[in-house]
Design brief:
Blueprint: H1 9-20, H2 24-40, H3 45-54, H4 58-69, H5 74-84, H6 87-99, H7 104-113, H8 116-128, H9 136-160, H10 172-182, H11 189-204, H12 213-235
Helix pairs in contact: 1-9, 2-4, 2-9, 2-10, 3-9, 4-5, 5-12, 6-8, 8-9, 11-12
């Protein structure tokens, strides 16, 4: 990527928007599903839409709506949503070295917009692109594009989602979206082992009540991945 092409904030922002746009193909049906699911769980339409700004985490919103609809205890809902969102702390640690010099207002804004798709679209630019002084605008462009797309798609889900035929199987797009994000990011053996462990545990523990398999899979994946990473470091000369 040519440094001159991304020298200004506008050019960096545009680059982030263009990098994020293809990912909206998976986000839009995801948002439609969330809108329909939120209503079917008993949440009022305004709450379904408001959660997109307050929580702004697609998978966590889906989990919240499902657990709410199942009348799950509040503590279990909070714990599950918290564990699902732990990955955002990892994203933050990954981009922190490239954003360290920014003022607090920028860090707060970018931390709010730092979601799965925004991270996937921006991390390559931050790690391998030219270290221009305005490169944080690339992440801002990607994050804002995702935010806007998520708000609109969830609103559409609330307004017209119920009219979408079940035969379209849009819910499968959720799994496809996260597979498309995760697979290209698996660069180390420890990351692959962590992903396989979490996936296996999730499948084996599907029968747990209150979707506790999500917490179990996340914790097992993190633990095994961390152990594998520690072993890899010890084996290096």
């Amino acid at each position: 990527m040519d440094t001159a092409e991304l020298a200004s904030p506008v050019q960096e922002f545009r680059g982030g928007v263009m990098a994020e746009l293809p990912l909206l193909l998976g986000v839009v049906p995801f948002g439609l599903i969330y809108g329909v699911l939120g209503l079917s769980a008993g949440l009022p339409g305004w709450a379904v839409v408001a959660m997109c700004s307050v929580l702004f985490a697609g998978s966590s919103q889906i989990v919240f709506a499902q657990l709410w609809g199942a009348q799950t205890p509040a503590m279990v809902i909070g714990a599950t949503v918290g564990v699902v969102n732990l990955r955002h702390a990892l994203y933050s640690a990954s981009v922190a070295p490239y954003l360290r010099s920014l003022p607090l207002r920028w860090k707060l804004l970018l931390s709010y917009l730092l979601t799965d798709e925004a991270y996937a679209a921006s991390i390559g630019r931050l790690m391998d692109g030219p270290p221009t002084p305005h490169r944080h605008w690339f992440l801002f462009g990607a994050g804002f594009t995702l935010w806007a797309g998520w708000q609109l798609s969830a609103l559409a889900g609330v307004l017209v989602g119920a009219a979408i035929p079940a035969s379209w199987s849009l819910d499968f797009s959720i799994a496809l979206t996260f597979i498309a994000l995760v697979v290209p990011a698996l660069r180390r053996r420890s990351e692959l082992i962590a992903a396989l462990t979490a996936g296996t545990v999730a499948l084996l523990l599907q029968g747990l009540p209150h979707k506790l398999w999500i917490i179990a899979a996340a914790l097992c994946g993190i633990a095994v991945g961390a152990l594998s990473r520690a072993i890899d470091r010890k084996e290096k000369p």
